[in-house]
Structure formats: structure tokens, C-alpha cells
Design goal:
379 residues, alpha+beta, eleven-stranded antiparallel β-sheet, globular, disordered N terminus
């Protein structure tokens, strides 16, 4: 016997299970939807589940007297026990139910409505992943113009009247005049970012006498400027003496609620109590703040041209190779071939890529995304 509503329920449950719901969460949603469907079916058919018999005036009364519904039977069993061919055609009941369509059509319509709600819930619970996974080398900077990128400045938003971001002699110049970033138009995940950068000579405003400072923000998410001048993201910091530090940058959504951003690092404390990466140390979850690269000088000072004893970065004005390898939630910072920092379980695990302007002139001659190598590249 055909029971379209319950066949549909079974099919959609199987379909939704493939959406990677957490089992408990899915069961709660499905239980709610199933109860809704059964209650609507029973209400439209005037079935009083749990009673010994139906109203004797109802067309199903004869069936119920022949086979009463037990008080302890479940709603699903009660409804599914009713043979499909026993449901009367509502056309014969037009005198008592003039505006009511056939019961089977009603129940099936309510099933479809509830199942559509379930799919909507599934779509909302399942994170949207439109991020691009590179399968070949992607040149984010083509050496000619800013195609594929857009600027966002704290004071002028999407306008760049001061020419903070420009192309000079085949290089991307970031003047440093103000706070903001140059962002990729698309989101990316699972990539090996390779950049070559050097500091310029110009410094601005409150950081004229401070270390030259900038950064590459990965996994940037949410609206532009949701974290002050930046976006919620995980930053690979570029700063004299501290290039390769992680900074977890929290932001807020349009409703003012925090955007979930976090990174797990194997970290210990230095002399001054600051978190510093140490492979094999106890893992700690960071939702804000900085995790220093392994060799950051304990005597680091925010003064122009600072250099630490273990610095991997080359002297001011020389080209450096900075790589950020993002493999799911695993993030590795490499500076001039040396792994200087590592994080795990990054949230989010994909997003836009931002190149900061933060009061110091900076040049890039290469910005490329490479597909991930088959083997782990952090070793």
C-alpha cells in the first residue's frame, strides 16, 4: 500500500543524514518536524490518537471500531497503521467538508512543507563553503594592476584618494598612509601562499619612530571593517623583529555579536609572560591576542629598525620570502625557508586574504597561491 507522506519522510531523513549533521542535533530537528507532520495529519483527519475510538460521526469511525487505537501506541505507528485505501475521498463529503481538500492531499502537503523547513534548517546549520581551493598556481598580484583585489581604508572605505595601493615598476606598493587593507575579491582555503616582500623607507603618523608594521590576514570573514580597520581573521604579522607572529583578530557581525575566530597553538610563556610558539608544548586555544614566533627577542622594543638576536628576517630593504600554508585548520608560517610559527584547528578555515597598510611603506613583488603539496610541508 502506498503511503507517500511517510515514504517522503524516510527519503528526506536519509538525504539529510548525508549533510553531516551532528547526530544529536539532527535527531532533535527531525523529531520536531516528524511530530509536526503527524500532528497536522491527525488534526486534519480528526484522529484522536490515544483514544479507543474515533467520533462515530466521522467516516473512519467504522474502521476504528473494527480496530481500536491503543492508548500506548505511538503517533507514527497509529497513523501509519491506517491503510491508504481506507481514507475516504473528500469529494463524497462535500456537504460536511465543503472547503476541505482530500485528506491525503492535505497530509502530503504538510509533509512537503515540513520537509522544506528541514532542508532550510540543514542549509543554515551547514556552513557555507564557497572558498576556492587552488588546483594550479593563482597569481593574486599580476604585476600590472590590481585586478582581483579591492581596497578598504578606515577613513575613506572603498575609495583610495591618496593612492595607498598602487603598482610601481611591476611591484605592489603599499604606501602605509593610514589604516586598512587590500583584499582578495574571492575567498580561499587549503593553499600555500608564497609572497616576496621588502620594507620601504616611508613611515607615517603615530609610527614614525616605531617598528615598521604590517601583516597578511588569512581566513578573513564577515563584512569589511568588522574588526576596526580590519576584518575578523588570523594574521601573519609583518613587523620588524616579529615577522611570523600570529595575531587572532576578533570581529563582530552586523548584529554586533562576536564572529567566532580562534587558533590552537603549542605555546609556552617567555620571560615577560607572553605566549611564544614552541613545538610540542601544551596546546592552548587563542580567541584574541598574539602568539610570538619562536625566536622573538625577549628584549624586543617598538623602535624603528629593531633587530633581534635570532631574527630570520633579512635587514631592512632586502627581499624576504614569507609563506603561509593553510591546510584545513592547520596554519604554518615560514620566513625565508624557516618554519617560525604553527597553529591548529583554525576557525574559520577559509576566507579572504588581506594585505595591511599600517603606517609603513611596503613592497610585494610576488603574491601567489599554490596548491597544497601531497605531503605535510611544515616538517
Amino acid at each position: 500500500m502506498s503511503r507517500p507522506p511517510f515514504l517522503a519522510i524516510g527519503l528526506v531523513k536519509s538525504s539529510l543524514c548525508r549533510r553531516h549533521f551532528a547526530s544529536g542535533e539532527f535527531d532533535r530537528y527531525f523529531e520536531f518536524a516528524l511530530c509536526f507532520i503527524v500532528s497536522r495529519f491527525c488534526a486534519r483527519a480528526d484522529v484522536k490518537v490515544g483514544r479507543a475510538a474515533l467520533d462515530t460521526t466521522h467516516p473512519w469511525a467504522g474502521y476504528t471500531r473494527r480496530r481500536p487505537v491503543r492508548a500506548n501506541i505511538s503517533p507514527v505507528a497509529a497513523v501509519s497503521a491506517i491503510p491508504a485505501n481506507s481514507i475516504p475521498d473528500a469529494r463524497a463529503e462535500r456537504t460536511s467538508m465543503p472547503h476541505t481538500p482530500p485528506i491525503r492531499q492535505q497530509s502530503f502537503a504538510f509533509c512537503l512543507l515540513a520537509l522544506a523547513c528541514l532542508h532550510t534548517i540543514a542549509d543554515a546549520a551547514e556552513p557555507k563553503d564557497d572558498a576556492i581551493r587552488p588546483t594550479e598556481v593563482v597569481r593574486l598580484f599580476n604585476g600590472r594592476d590590481l585586478t582581483g583585489l579591492y581596497s578598504h581604508l578606515q577613513d575613506t572605505k572603498y575609495e583610495d584618494p591618496r593612492g595607498v595601493f598602487s603598482v610601481v615598476d611591476g611591484q605592489l606598493r603599499i604606501s602605509g598612509d593610514g589604516l586598512g587593507y587590500l583584499a582578495t575579491k574571492g575567498a580561499y582555503r587549503d593553499y600555500h601562499l608564497v609572497t616576496e616582500f621588502k620594507w620601504g623607507k616611508q613611515v607615517w603618523g603615530p609610527r614614525k619612530l616605531a617598528t615598521k608594521d604590517s601583516g597578511i590576514l588569512v581566513h578573513a570573514t564577515g563584512a569589511d571593517g568588522n574588526a576596526g580597520p580590519w576584518m575578523a581573521s588570523i594574521e601573519c604579522q609583518l613587523i620588524e623583529g616579529g615577522t611570523g607572529d600570529f595575531i587572532v583578530v576578533p570581529g563582530k557581525n552586523a548584529e554586533g555579536a562576536p564572529i567566532d575566530v580562534s587558533l590552537v597553538c603549542e605555546a609556552t610563556k617567555d620571560r615577560d609572560g607572553e605566549a611564544i610558539w614552541k613545538r610540542g608544548a601544551k596546546r592552548e586555544t587563542f580567541r584574541s591576542g598574539r602568539i610570538n614566533w619562536f625566536g622573538r627577542d625577549e628584549d624586543w622594543k617598538d623602535t624603528l629598525s629593531f633587530r633581534g638576536r635570532q631574527d630570520v628576517e633579512k635587514p631592512d630593504g632586502e627581499w624576504n620570502t614569507l609563506e603561509v600554508i593553510c591546510d584545513g585548520g592547520h596554519v604554518v608560517n615560514k620566513l625565508n625557508g624557516v618554519v617560525v610559527n604553527e597553529g591548529f584547528d583554525a576557525t574559520p578555515a577559509g576566507g579572504k586574504i588581506l594585505f595591511q597598510t599600517e603606517y609603513a611603506e611596503l613592497f610585494f613583488r610576488k603574491i601567489e597561491l599554490h596548491p597544497l603539496a601531497p605531503k605535510a610541508e611544515a616538517k
